[in-house]
Design a protein that fits this description.
CATH topology of the largest domain: Aminopeptidase
CATH architecture of the largest domain: 3-Layer(aba) Sandwich
CATH superfamily of the largest domain: Zn peptidases
Number of domains: 2
Oligomer: single chain
Order of helices and strands: HHEEEEEEEEHEEEHEHEEHEHEEHH
Number of helices: 9
Strand order of the largest sheet: 1-2-12-3-13-16-14-15
Low-confidence stretches: none
Distance between the termini: 47 Å
CATH class of the largest domain: Alpha Beta
Length: 355
Amino acid sequence: MEVVALLKQLSEAEGIAGFEGPIRELVRQSWEPFVDEMHEGKLGSLIGLKRGTGPEPRPKLMFAAHMDEIGLMVTGIEKEFLRIARVGGADPRVLLGLEVMVHGRRKLPGVVATRPPHVLPREERKKAVPLDEIFVDVGLSEEKVRELVSVGDLISIRREMSELKNRRVSGKALDDRACVAAITLSLERLQRVQHAWDVFAVATAQEETGLKGAVTAAYGVAPDAAIALDVTFGEQSDVSKSDTLPLGKGPTIAIGPNFHPKLVERLKEVAKDREIPYHIDPIPGRSGTDAWAIQVTREGVPTALISVPLRYMHQPVETLAVEDVERAGRLLAAFVAESETSLLEDLAWKVDERK
Protein backbone atom coordinates (compact mmCIF):
# COMPACT_ATOMS: atom_id res chain seq x y z
CA MET A 1 0.00 0.00 0.00
CA GLU A 2 1.34 3.45 -0.94
CA VAL A 3 1.30 5.24 2.39
CA VAL A 4 1.69 8.84 1.19
CA ALA A 5 -1.22 8.43 -1.23
CA LEU A 6 -3.36 6.98 1.57
CA LEU A 7 -2.45 9.85 3.91
CA LYS A 8 -3.30 12.37 1.19
CA GLN A 9 -6.75 10.85 0.63
CA LEU A 10 -7.53 10.73 4.33
CA SER A 11 -6.18 14.20 5.10
CA GLU A 12 -8.06 15.97 2.32
CA ALA A 13 -11.42 14.26 2.95
CA GLU A 14 -14.15 16.18 4.76
CA GLY A 15 -15.53 14.96 8.07
CA ILE A 16 -16.14 17.49 10.84
CA ALA A 17 -16.98 16.03 14.26
CA GLY A 18 -20.57 14.82 14.26
CA PHE A 19 -20.76 14.93 10.45
CA GLU A 20 -18.19 12.33 9.44
CA GLY A 21 -20.02 10.93 6.39
CA PRO A 22 -17.43 11.60 3.64
CA ILE A 23 -14.41 10.42 5.62
CA ARG A 24 -16.33 7.40 6.93
CA GLU A 25 -17.10 6.30 3.37
CA LEU A 26 -13.45 6.67 2.39
CA VAL A 27 -12.31 4.60 5.38
CA ARG A 28 -14.95 2.00 4.53
CA GLN A 29 -13.50 1.65 1.04
CA SER A 30 -9.95 1.42 2.44
CA TRP A 31 -10.80 -1.29 4.97
CA GLU A 32 -13.21 -3.35 2.90
CA PRO A 33 -10.54 -5.62 1.33
CA PHE A 34 -9.02 -6.42 4.71
CA VAL A 35 -11.90 -7.17 7.09
CA ASP A 36 -14.53 -9.91 7.26
CA GLU A 37 -17.40 -7.62 8.10
CA MET A 38 -18.11 -3.98 8.78
CA HIS A 39 -20.89 -1.94 10.31
CA GLU A 40 -21.62 1.60 11.35
CA GLY A 41 -22.28 2.38 15.00
CA LYS A 42 -25.34 4.38 15.95
CA LEU A 43 -23.16 7.44 16.69
CA GLY A 44 -21.38 7.15 13.35
CA SER A 45 -18.18 5.26 14.17
CA LEU A 46 -17.06 2.69 11.60
CA ILE A 47 -16.32 -0.77 13.02
CA GLY A 48 -14.54 -3.47 11.02
CA LEU A 49 -14.00 -7.05 12.21
CA LYS A 50 -10.99 -9.14 11.18
CA ARG A 51 -11.67 -12.60 12.59
CA GLY A 52 -8.91 -14.59 14.25
CA THR A 53 -8.15 -18.26 13.78
CA GLY A 54 -8.14 -19.33 17.42
CA PRO A 55 -10.84 -21.47 19.02
CA GLU A 56 -14.14 -19.79 19.77
CA PRO A 57 -15.03 -17.82 21.77
CA ARG A 58 -12.04 -15.75 20.75
CA PRO A 59 -10.86 -12.77 22.80
CA LYS A 60 -11.53 -9.37 21.25
CA LEU A 61 -8.88 -6.72 20.64
CA MET A 62 -10.03 -3.24 19.63
CA PHE A 63 -7.97 -0.69 17.71
CA ALA A 64 -9.37 2.86 17.81
CA ALA A 65 -8.36 6.03 15.98
CA HIS A 66 -10.67 8.97 15.47
CA MET A 67 -11.61 10.03 11.95
CA ASP A 68 -13.34 13.34 12.73
CA GLU A 69 -11.72 16.73 12.28
CA ILE A 70 -12.12 20.20 13.71
CA GLY A 71 -14.00 22.82 11.71
CA LEU A 72 -16.39 25.76 11.80
CA MET A 73 -20.14 26.42 11.81
CA VAL A 74 -22.22 29.33 10.50
CA THR A 75 -23.75 31.28 13.39
CA GLY A 76 -25.09 34.28 11.51
CA ILE A 77 -25.39 36.09 8.17
CA GLU A 78 -24.51 39.80 8.06
CA LYS A 79 -25.00 41.24 4.60
CA GLU A 80 -23.08 38.79 2.39
CA PHE A 81 -20.68 37.67 5.16
CA LEU A 82 -20.90 34.61 7.39
CA ARG A 83 -20.22 34.77 11.11
CA ILE A 84 -18.68 31.62 12.53
CA ALA A 85 -18.11 29.48 15.61
CA ARG A 86 -15.65 26.65 16.19
CA VAL A 87 -16.52 22.94 16.09
CA GLY A 88 -13.89 21.26 18.22
CA GLY A 89 -10.59 22.93 19.02
CA ALA A 90 -10.04 25.02 15.89
CA ASP A 91 -7.36 27.60 16.65
CA PRO A 92 -8.60 31.17 15.96
CA ARG A 93 -5.00 32.38 15.57
CA VAL A 94 -4.56 30.45 12.30
CA LEU A 95 -7.99 30.91 10.73
CA LEU A 96 -7.29 34.14 8.86
CA GLY A 97 -6.49 33.61 5.19
CA LEU A 98 -7.70 30.00 5.07
CA GLU A 99 -9.61 28.65 2.12
CA VAL A 100 -12.76 26.87 3.27
CA MET A 101 -15.78 25.03 1.94
CA VAL A 102 -19.23 26.08 3.18
CA HIS A 103 -21.64 23.15 3.23
CA GLY A 104 -24.89 24.91 2.41
CA ARG A 105 -27.61 23.88 -0.02
CA ARG A 106 -24.66 23.29 -2.29
CA LYS A 107 -20.95 23.49 -1.58
CA LEU A 108 -19.55 27.01 -1.70
CA PRO A 109 -15.81 27.78 -1.69
CA GLY A 110 -14.91 30.67 0.57
CA VAL A 111 -12.15 32.48 2.43
CA VAL A 112 -11.72 33.41 6.09
CA ALA A 113 -10.95 37.10 6.53
CA THR A 114 -11.19 40.18 8.73
CA ARG A 115 -10.72 43.94 8.40
CA PRO A 116 -7.30 44.99 7.06
CA PRO A 117 -4.90 46.56 9.59
CA HIS A 118 -5.09 49.93 7.78
CA VAL A 119 -8.61 50.61 9.09
CA LEU A 120 -8.00 49.46 12.67
CA PRO A 121 -7.24 51.75 15.60
CA ARG A 122 -3.48 51.72 16.18
CA GLU A 123 -3.76 49.93 19.55
CA GLU A 124 -5.62 46.99 17.95
CA ARG A 125 -3.19 46.31 15.12
CA LYS A 126 -0.84 44.16 17.18
CA LYS A 127 -3.54 42.18 18.96
CA ALA A 128 -4.91 38.79 17.97
CA VAL A 129 -8.19 39.14 16.10
CA PRO A 130 -11.09 37.80 18.22
CA LEU A 131 -13.36 35.18 16.67
CA ASP A 132 -16.35 37.53 16.59
CA GLU A 133 -14.43 39.82 14.20
CA ILE A 134 -13.62 37.03 11.76
CA PHE A 135 -15.97 36.15 8.90
CA VAL A 136 -16.24 33.95 5.82
CA ASP A 137 -16.73 35.44 2.36
CA VAL A 138 -18.09 33.20 -0.43
CA GLY A 139 -18.21 35.97 -3.04
CA LEU A 140 -21.98 36.06 -3.47
CA SER A 141 -24.60 38.75 -2.92
CA GLU A 142 -26.52 38.85 0.34
CA GLU A 143 -29.63 37.61 -1.43
CA LYS A 144 -27.81 34.60 -2.87
CA VAL A 145 -26.02 33.84 0.38
CA ARG A 146 -29.30 33.76 2.28
CA GLU A 147 -30.75 31.48 -0.39
CA LEU A 148 -27.90 28.97 -0.18
CA VAL A 149 -26.62 29.18 3.41
CA SER A 150 -28.36 28.70 6.76
CA VAL A 151 -27.31 29.15 10.35
CA GLY A 152 -25.88 25.82 11.49
CA ASP A 153 -24.26 24.92 8.17
CA LEU A 154 -20.77 23.49 8.49
CA ILE A 155 -17.55 24.99 7.15
CA SER A 156 -14.58 22.70 6.48
CA ILE A 157 -11.00 23.69 5.79
CA ARG A 158 -9.76 23.27 2.21
CA ARG A 159 -6.17 22.14 2.19
CA GLU A 160 -4.16 19.87 -0.08
CA MET A 161 -1.60 17.74 1.72
CA SER A 162 1.98 18.71 0.84
CA GLU A 163 4.99 16.42 0.61
CA LEU A 164 8.02 17.97 2.28
CA LYS A 165 11.62 16.76 2.30
CA ASN A 166 12.76 13.63 4.20
CA ARG A 167 9.41 11.83 3.76
CA ARG A 168 7.52 14.36 5.83
CA VAL A 169 4.05 15.50 4.94
CA SER A 170 1.93 18.45 5.98
CA GLY A 171 -1.82 18.90 5.86
CA LYS A 172 -5.07 19.22 7.76
CA ALA A 173 -6.70 16.53 9.91
CA LEU A 174 -3.59 14.36 10.21
CA ASP A 175 -4.78 14.42 13.80
CA ASP A 176 -5.96 11.69 13.72
CA ARG A 177 -6.23 10.35 10.22
CA ALA A 178 -2.55 9.47 10.30
CA CYS A 179 -3.52 6.84 12.86
CA VAL A 180 -6.49 5.70 10.77
CA ALA A 181 -3.82 5.09 8.11
CA ALA A 182 -1.72 3.14 10.63
CA ILE A 183 -4.69 0.87 11.40
CA THR A 184 -5.25 0.40 7.66
CA LEU A 185 -1.61 -0.66 7.23
CA SER A 186 -1.92 -3.12 10.12
CA LEU A 187 -5.05 -4.68 8.61
CA GLU A 188 -3.22 -5.12 5.31
CA ARG A 189 -0.35 -6.88 7.11
CA LEU A 190 -2.72 -9.14 9.01
CA GLN A 191 -3.93 -10.58 5.69
CA ARG A 192 -0.66 -12.47 5.55
CA VAL A 193 -0.60 -13.93 9.06
CA GLN A 194 -2.77 -16.03 11.31
CA HIS A 195 -3.79 -14.55 14.65
CA ALA A 196 -5.65 -15.92 17.64
CA TRP A 197 -7.66 -12.82 18.58
CA ASP A 198 -10.57 -11.22 16.79
CA VAL A 199 -9.50 -7.70 15.80
CA PHE A 200 -12.03 -4.87 15.77
CA ALA A 201 -10.75 -1.84 13.87
CA VAL A 202 -12.70 1.28 14.82
CA ALA A 203 -12.60 4.71 13.19
CA THR A 204 -14.29 6.68 15.95
CA ALA A 205 -16.59 9.66 15.57
CA GLN A 206 -16.76 12.87 17.59
CA GLU A 207 -13.45 12.54 19.41
CA GLU A 208 -12.82 16.25 18.95
CA THR A 209 -16.04 17.08 20.81
CA GLY A 210 -15.69 14.77 23.78
CA LEU A 211 -14.51 11.22 22.91
CA LYS A 212 -18.11 10.23 22.19
CA GLY A 213 -17.46 7.67 19.47
CA ALA A 214 -14.93 5.83 21.63
CA VAL A 215 -17.44 5.61 24.48
CA THR A 216 -20.21 4.09 22.37
CA ALA A 217 -18.04 1.90 20.14
CA ALA A 218 -16.21 0.36 23.08
CA TYR A 219 -19.51 -0.30 24.84
CA GLY A 220 -20.83 -2.08 21.75
CA VAL A 221 -17.69 -4.09 20.98
CA ALA A 222 -16.99 -4.91 24.66
CA PRO A 223 -13.32 -5.68 23.92
CA ASP A 224 -11.08 -7.73 26.19
CA ALA A 225 -8.26 -5.28 25.47
CA ALA A 226 -7.85 -2.14 23.40
CA ILE A 227 -5.14 -0.04 21.79
CA ALA A 228 -6.03 3.56 20.99
CA LEU A 229 -3.98 5.51 18.49
CA ASP A 230 -3.57 9.27 18.38
CA VAL A 231 -1.00 11.93 17.72
CA THR A 232 1.33 13.48 20.28
CA PHE A 233 3.40 16.66 20.28
CA GLY A 234 6.38 16.50 17.94
CA GLU A 235 9.55 18.49 18.43
CA GLN A 236 9.25 22.02 17.09
CA SER A 237 10.54 25.52 17.62
CA ASP A 238 9.78 27.30 20.89
CA VAL A 239 8.39 24.21 22.65
CA SER A 240 10.29 22.52 25.46
CA LYS A 241 11.97 19.24 24.52
CA SER A 242 10.55 17.72 27.69
CA ASP A 243 7.04 18.24 26.26
CA THR A 244 7.73 16.88 22.78
CA LEU A 245 9.04 13.81 20.95
CA PRO A 246 11.16 13.58 17.80
CA LEU A 247 9.78 13.02 14.32
CA GLY A 248 11.04 10.07 12.32
CA LYS A 249 12.31 8.08 15.30
CA GLY A 250 9.27 5.85 15.74
CA PRO A 251 5.86 6.03 17.41
CA THR A 252 5.40 6.43 21.14
CA ILE A 253 4.02 4.04 23.74
CA ALA A 254 2.29 5.87 26.57
CA ILE A 255 2.72 5.05 30.23
CA GLY A 256 0.51 6.26 33.07
CA PRO A 257 -2.69 5.43 34.97
CA ASN A 258 -4.77 5.47 31.76
CA PHE A 259 -2.79 2.48 30.45
CA HIS A 260 -2.57 -1.12 31.60
CA PRO A 261 1.06 -1.75 32.63
CA LYS A 262 1.21 -5.31 31.30
CA LEU A 263 -0.22 -4.24 27.96
CA VAL A 264 2.40 -1.51 27.83
CA GLU A 265 5.18 -3.99 28.61
CA ARG A 266 3.92 -6.37 25.93
CA LEU A 267 3.97 -3.61 23.32
CA LYS A 268 7.51 -2.70 24.32
CA GLU A 269 8.60 -6.35 24.03
CA VAL A 270 7.06 -6.69 20.56
CA ALA A 271 8.69 -3.45 19.39
CA LYS A 272 12.06 -4.65 20.65
CA ASP A 273 11.70 -8.10 19.08
CA ARG A 274 10.71 -6.63 15.71
CA GLU A 275 13.35 -3.86 15.91
CA ILE A 276 10.72 -1.15 15.71
CA PRO A 277 12.05 2.07 17.27
CA TYR A 278 9.76 3.74 19.79
CA HIS A 279 9.73 6.29 22.60
CA ILE A 280 8.00 6.24 25.97
CA ASP A 281 5.45 9.02 26.38
CA PRO A 282 4.80 9.65 30.09
CA ILE A 283 1.20 10.78 30.72
CA PRO A 284 0.63 10.99 34.48
CA GLY A 285 -3.04 11.99 34.25
CA ARG A 286 -5.77 12.43 31.65
CA SER A 287 -4.57 11.43 28.20
CA GLY A 288 -7.38 13.27 26.39
CA THR A 289 -7.50 10.50 23.79
CA ASP A 290 -9.93 7.71 22.96
CA ALA A 291 -7.97 5.60 25.46
CA TRP A 292 -9.36 7.80 28.25
CA ALA A 293 -12.92 6.79 27.36
CA ILE A 294 -12.28 3.15 26.44
CA GLN A 295 -10.50 2.33 29.70
CA VAL A 296 -13.62 2.91 31.82
CA THR A 297 -16.21 1.37 29.49
CA ARG A 298 -18.46 -1.27 31.08
CA GLU A 299 -16.47 -2.89 33.91
CA GLY A 300 -13.18 -1.54 32.53
CA VAL A 301 -10.95 -2.41 29.56
CA PRO A 302 -7.17 -2.96 29.65
CA THR A 303 -6.05 -0.16 27.36
CA ALA A 304 -2.85 1.11 25.75
CA LEU A 305 -1.99 4.12 23.61
CA ILE A 306 0.32 4.36 20.61
CA SER A 307 0.94 7.85 19.25
CA VAL A 308 2.54 9.43 16.20
CA PRO A 309 4.58 12.60 16.88
CA LEU A 310 3.05 15.56 15.05
CA ARG A 311 3.97 19.23 14.74
CA TYR A 312 1.50 22.14 14.71
CA MET A 313 -1.48 20.25 16.14
CA HIS A 314 -4.92 21.66 15.30
CA GLN A 315 -3.46 23.81 12.55
CA PRO A 316 -3.99 23.28 8.81
CA VAL A 317 -0.29 22.46 8.38
CA GLU A 318 0.03 19.51 10.77
CA THR A 319 3.35 17.84 9.95
CA LEU A 320 4.65 14.32 10.59
CA ALA A 321 7.15 11.73 9.38
CA VAL A 322 5.65 9.03 7.18
CA GLU A 323 7.89 6.33 8.65
CA ASP A 324 6.33 6.89 12.10
CA VAL A 325 2.92 6.01 10.63
CA GLU A 326 4.38 2.93 8.94
CA ARG A 327 6.06 1.78 12.15
CA ALA A 328 2.86 2.25 14.16
CA GLY A 329 1.09 0.00 11.66
CA ARG A 330 3.85 -2.61 11.88
CA LEU A 331 3.72 -2.55 15.68
CA LEU A 332 -0.05 -3.10 15.73
CA ALA A 333 0.13 -6.03 13.32
CA ALA A 334 3.07 -7.61 15.14
CA PHE A 335 1.29 -7.28 18.48
CA VAL A 336 -1.75 -9.10 17.08
CA ALA A 337 0.34 -11.81 15.41
CA GLU A 338 2.25 -12.56 18.60
CA SER A 339 -0.66 -12.42 21.06
CA GLU A 340 -1.99 -15.77 22.17
CA THR A 341 -5.26 -16.16 24.03
CA SER A 342 -3.22 -16.69 27.21
CA LEU A 343 -2.47 -12.95 27.18
CA LEU A 344 -5.88 -12.46 28.79
CA GLU A 345 -4.64 -14.14 31.95
CA ASP A 346 -1.61 -11.85 32.04
CA LEU A 347 -3.87 -8.79 31.82
CA ALA A 348 -6.08 -9.87 34.73
CA TRP A 349 -5.46 -7.83 37.87
CA LYS A 350 -4.35 -9.73 40.95
CA VAL A 351 -5.28 -8.45 44.40
CA ASP A 352 -1.66 -8.03 45.50
CA GLU A 353 -0.80 -6.05 42.33
CA ARG A 354 -3.12 -3.22 43.31
CA LYS A 355 -1.48 -2.56 46.67
